[in-house]
Write a structure and sequence with these properties.
With 224 residues, the chain is α/β, with parallel strands linked by helices. The protein has one domain: Aldolase class I (TIM Barrel, Alpha-Beta Barrel), CATH 3.20.20.70. The chain is 36% helix and 18% strand. The radius of gyration is 16 Å and the shape is globular.
Length: 224
């Protein structure tokens, strides 16, 4: 089974962002996760395409861009042009989700769909053939450092069953409250991609923490 680590820079030091990206370039992590928030869809603001473009100019790993914004269709092309390799939009924010996902894929990058904790898995059944990954939010989106919602485990298990049932190749990604304590059970539930922010960037040595998290993932891959 494929496993990727996608560190979220949301809780990194934005005064020294270049050093953060260089550290991630040299780390064992496969992707770099960028949280885009507009202050409307979620109660927080982060950054837009110009910052993504600056990050892309120094990043040597795929940019996993998560749009937590209203009316994402207005900005999809701007983020793709800025350097996104994976672009994820929210089920709850898209009026015509099929159109949005197929447009993203037509631009030559991976398309993802995210769902909030309260959104049932079943709403995704018809869209799974058109998405490359499903991002299951395991906290209410908007802020880093929140506690993992335990009921998310059953949702992930249901999603894995739905993916198997439909023959989809979509990856399962999780974001929110993920750390070394719950990573293994998430992998056992079928998770392919772990977005981890606070557990990495609030540790004393983020690079060493990434190595430790990847060792958990690699150990699980060996056993799986």
């Amino acid at each position: 089974m494929i496993h990727y680590l996608s560190p979220s820079i949301l809780n990194s030091n934005f005064l020294d962002l270049r050093s953060t990206i260089e550290m991630l370039n040299q780390s064992d992590a496969e992707w770099i996760h960028l949280d885009i928030m507009d202050g409307h869809f979620v109660p927080n603001l982060t950054f837009g395409p110009p910052i993504v473009q600056m990050i892309a100019s120094v990043a040597r790993k795929p940019l996993d861009v998560h749009l937590m914004i209203e009316d994402p269709d207005r900005y999809v092309d701007a983020f793709i042009d800025a350097g996104a390799s994976i672009l994820t939009v929210h089920y709850e924010a898209c009026t015509h989700l099929h159109r949005t996902l197929t447009h993203i894929k037509s631009r030559g990058i991976k398309a993802g769909v995210a769902i909030n904790p309260h959104t049932p898995i079943g709403v995704l059944e018809e869209i799974l053939p058109y998405t490359d990954l499903v991002l299951n939010m395991t906290v209410n989106p908007g802020f880093g450092g929140q506690q993992f919602i335990e009921s998310s485990l059953s949702k992930i298990q249901k999603l894995k069953l739905l993916i198997d049932k439909t023959g989809s190749s979509a990856l399962i990604e999780v974001d929110g409250g993920v750390d070394a304590d719950n990573l293994k059970i998430l992998l056992q539930s079928g998770v392919n991609v772990a977005v981890i922010g606070s557990a990495i960037f609030q540790s004393e040595n983020p690079a060493a923490t990434i190595r430790m998290l990847k060792s958990i993932m690699q150990s699980f891959s060996t056993k799986a």
